[in-house]
Amino acid sequence: MLATRMSDSSRPVVGVDLGGTSVKAALVSPERAMLGRGQLPTDLRDQRSLMELLTRLVEQVSGGADIAAAGFGLPSQVDQRHGRVLNSVNIPLADLDFVAEMERRLGVPVAVDNDANVACLAETRVGAARGCSHVVMLTLGTGVGGGLVLDGKLYRGATGTGAELGHVTVDEDGPPCQGNCRNRGCLEVLASATGIMRLAGGVADERPAGSFARARERGEDLDARFVIEQAKGGDSDAVEALRRAGRYLGIGLASFANIFNPEVILIGGGASAAGELLIGPARTEMVRRGLPPTTRGVRVAIAELGNTAGVLGAAELALDLASDRQAA
To answer: What CATH number is given for 130-303 in this structure?
Structure first.
């Protein structure tokens, strides 16, 4: 038994980050060295096809290595009590005993969590929040994902579906939220990449002689990437759109700071490329609204790991699982 445990502790794991466009995977050693990587387009035809793709990618990345476990970060609500995917955003996974099915397919222990949770875990252990035990992370993409590390551990709530930070209300009379959310004025629709595009359209409406109105007349798509590029070039309409998004973000950050008292709040996802053009107004609004003892001490920063956060966080899940199995 001792020999088996020693062997397990030296075996690598595979971390998998599943997105709506692509699936990334990495073979990671117990020392956190990335030994191999792979990526495939996401197969969105149906649940079976997607599960077969995940299986194939793990086998491809492991390259025949005797892995100790596999971890998965999914854009899904996960019942952590049973390893079950309840529903998902933009991928065909729902009402599925994910852990049991992947363990059957791979023959190794499997861990699973929401993709924002695993990104937060990675940033806490090897990224921008290294050395911190109380971390809030937001990923600003099409929507807004949320992750929490409290007292050094991922916080998931009673069943595992907590930390949906993107669905805090920041404008009670705001636009309807996305997907199956029945709320209005969520952070998700006002500070995400989608929200930035919405706010850019508002700036264009208000300023018919401005650069955004002219760009729209030319057929330009006022998406977040365009807005960020223009803002970095000094365009006043773009700077204003990001200021408005940052203000909404800061309203949410004030609540998170008051509730969780984190050491750091990290901002990741594609919209984080705006940097201080977005984070600066958010920080200002957070300090203006939050309780002074809390907001004066919290650091607001851009996440470090970028596109590798998902696979590294999923690998951390797998390393933790392998360690727990060994200890048992």
So the answer is: 3.30.420.40
Report how far apart, in Å, the C-alpha atoms of 170 and of each of 114, 173, 187, 310, 314 are.
23, 9, 6, 27, 30
Residue with tokens 């200021």: 243
Starting at the edge strand that comes first in sequence, how are the strands of the sheet with 144-150 ordered?
Answer: 153-154, 144-150, 135-140, 264-268, 299-302
CATH architecture of 2-120+308-327: 2-Layer Sandwich (3.30)
CA-CA distance, 120 to 134, in Å (whole number)? 11
Q: Please, are residues 199 and 174 in contact by the beta-carbon 8 Å criterion?
A: no
238-283: pLDDT as tens digits = 999 999 999 999 999 999 999 999 999 999 999 999 999 999 999 9
Mark 246-276 as b/e (b = at least 16 C-beta within 10 Å).
bbbbbbbbbbbbbebbbbbbbbbbbbbbbee
Q: Is 205 helix (H, G, I), strand (E, B) or coil?
A: helix
Instruction: Write out the H or E segment, with its range, that includes residue 22.
Output: strand 22-28
pLDDT tens-place string over residues 272-328: 999 999 999 999 999 999 999 888 889 999 999 998 999 999 999 999 999 888 876
